[in-house]
Amino acid sequence: MKILVPVKRVIDYNVKVRVKSDGSGVDLANIKMSMNPFDEIALEEAIRIKEAGKADEIIAVSIGASQSQETLRTALAMGADRAILVVATDDVNQDIEPLDVAKILHAIVVEERTDLILCGKQAIDNDMNATAQMLSALMGCSQATFASKIELAGEKIKVTREVDGGLQVVEVTLPSVISVDLRLNEPRYASLPNIMKAKRKPLEQKEPKDFNVLVKNRLEIIETNEPAERMAGIKVSSVDELVEKLKNDAGVI
Amino acid sequence: MDQVLNQENALLLTTVRKFLEEEILPYEDEVDKTGEVNPELGKQIEKRAKEIGLFAANLPTEVGGGGLDYRSMMVLEREYGKTSHALHSWIARPTEILLACDEEQRQEFLYPCVRGEKRELFALTEPGAGSDVMGMKSNAVKDGDDWVLNGSKHFISGPCMPDFAIVFAVTGEDKTKRGIRKRITAFLVNRGEKGFDIKEGTKCVSYRGYKTFALNFDDVRLSKRTVLGKEGEGLKLSGKWLGMGRIWVGASCCGKAERMISLASEWAADRKQFGQPIGKFQGIGFRLADMAVGLRAADLMVNDAVDKAENKIMKDEDAAMVKLFCSEMVNKVADDTVQIFGGMGLMEEMPIQRLWRDSRLERIWDGTSEIQRHIIARSILRPLGA
After folding, report:
1. With contact defined as beta carbons under 8 Å apart, do B113 and B106 qualify?
2. What is the least distance, in Å, from the CA of B52 to any CA of chain A?
3. Partner of B125 at 20 to 30 A CA spacing, among A93, B194, B210, B270?
4. Chain A residues within an 8 Å CB radius of B52
């Protein structure tokens, strides 16, 4: 079985994000970029499935600017066997929308005949949470989202999903698209020997037109704002004062 | 790190940072307070370092090492510099001098070090011979096919009790144009040899938990096959690698300075006095600017020396300049960081005072700032006949 893991290059989760002065988006100039953490979890799961002898090959794919190559090198160093880079834009600020990403992934799935697609539930930059679902629809196959546990048994996969208020267990049949949640696993970091090996692993470069997809953004960003600054709290001297403030100032009781 | 790194080194940086975060940083306070690294913790660091490939990463793959080049080692040493020697020295980088072992010696000394089964000590310094290596009194006298070693060493540092020591001793004298010169030879001496006594030396306030040992040799009989390299060429051997050691001191000073600058900047942005963050006062803001410039310059010097080393054109004075500048820089940064934190900087529960104490040693070990200046001055004057 082949597993496809799409990985996105996003702003590093440790970076304090700043909005560009013209409000057109987030400032990405000279900012540390990393693999989307949810994609890292998906890749880790794929590696564990392969290590358990239940998969033969892991293909990592990234769609975006050519800089996404760095993200793919990370994926190869972690344990992916080969990588496909789809250069869909020459502007690092351009986000490729989920439908176009899903279309390209669909074409790759057909070409590579992959049975299982493991992806992050969403990218931490725009929080779309749509690609996995769209891909599954295009493929006409099963989907299981927000996985916190994945158990393979032949053609069937039992997936535990994190839903509001608890866990839901579903069973899907291959081929399938599974999107993973935060608590599925803790991703490893690349060991030195694997970093060295990654240099020699194949990385193929493609363009959307190779898959007959025309990348075209459908959404227009009108405004981007910083989150409202949290105001400092105050100390109250008594319970009575607290109740009074909650009633009259905050208006919550 | 504000540097251009290739993809492998960028990945290496991520790996080593995560390793430190998970395996080393959580134990810093405990080790500094108790002055001890629990041997179980040491072994655990060793084990994890082997799993991830950081163990013996400095040595060539032919002998079982990680095969990292100087640039990659710079990335590692710079990150290690952010924390304590007491902890990161468990991620062994066995001394490259052991590459001078012949095959039989490699089996007994080098390979076990690479596998983490043995630990070595590098024993050069003596009570009466610190900067003045030629003041060395330890000596070995030929007796038949054997050597008989006498003398003592101190301030010999390592993370734990070693299995053997690389001991430098005088084995004769040569007449040269500049007068009589001692012949110095390196010996591989196993702990447990009759007459070889080793004990833990005095405690140091820098890098608490990193041990110093005192070695004593009383008529220790050594076979001729304990000679490392050639007789009389001990200093040539150590000189070949001491230079890189000084570059790694420079790199680790940069790492430590980076950590302190980051702590000081956060504090300066957060701490408010007179109605504004203290960083907005020029007295603090300009200080931060100077700290950042000092670090940048030091990083550039380390990079330049690594370039030279990779092209095999690094000279003693290049290494001396790096060691001098970086170690002085980190001490200026440490002092400024304490000043920016004010009283808080000296409180035991803050890491500042520890980094400040640790920084101080950097100006002393691996050749004091004075010796580095001496080497640099000599390199300037000697070609002029002075």
Report:
1. no
2. 4
3. B194
4. 189, 191-192
Which tokens in the block code for residue B243? 């230079």
> Residue B23 gets which letter from DSSP?
I
Q: B168 and B234 in contact (C-beta within 8 Å)?
A: yes
Are the CB atoms for A25 and A224 separated by under 8 Å?
yes
pLDDT band at residue B201 using 50, 70 and 90 as cut-offs = confident
Enumerate domains of chain A plus CATH numbers.
2-250 (3.40.50.620)
- 8 Å CB contact between B337 and B352: yes
Q: Say if the Cβ atoms of B14 and A192 lie within 8 Å.
A: no
Among the partner-chain residues A70, A191, A194, the one whose CB lies closest to the CB of B7 is: A70
Q: Which of B211, B232, B253 is the last residue of a domain?
A: B232
Q: Do B57 and A199 touch (CB under 8 A)?
A: no
The shortest C-alpha distance from A33 to chain B (Å) reads: 11
Whether B175 and B273 map to the same domain: the answer is: no
Please name the residue that has the structure tokens 């002029």: B384
On whether both B199 and B125 belong to a single domain, the answer is: yes
Q: What angle do CA B130, B131, B133 make, to 5 degrees?
A: 75
Q: How much is the pTM? A: 0.89
Q: Does the interface predicted TM-score (ipTM) exceed 0.95?
A: no
* Distance, CA of B63 to CA of B10 (rounded, Å): 25
pLDDT, tens digit (0-9, with 9 covering 90-100), for B250-308: 999 999 999 999 999 999 999 999 999 999 999 999 999 999 999 999 999 999 999 99
Residues B168 and B263 in one domain: no
Bridge partners, B212 (sequence order):
B157
pLDDT digits (tens, 9 = 90+) for A124-154: 999 999 999 999 999 999 999 999 999 999 8
Tokens of residue B261, six digits: 């600058």
Instruction: Please state whether the peptide bond connecting residue A175 to the residue before it is cis, i.e. omega within 30 degrees of 0.
Output: yes
Contacts of A74 in chain B (CB under 8 A): 11, 14
Place of tokens 């344990």: A79
Beta carbons within 8 Å of A20's beta carbon, 6+ residues apart: A26, A27, A224
* Helix residue ranges, H only, A12-154: 37-51, 68-78, 98-112, 131-139
| Domain range for B210 | 119-232
Q: Is the pLDDT of residue B1 over 60?
A: no
CA distance A199 to chain B (A): 8
pLDDT digits (tens, 9 = 90+) for B53-80: 999 999 999 999 999 999 999 999 999 9
Minimum Cα–Cα distance from A195: chain B residue: B8
Which CATH number belongs to the domain containing residue B219 in this structure? Answer: 2.40.110.10
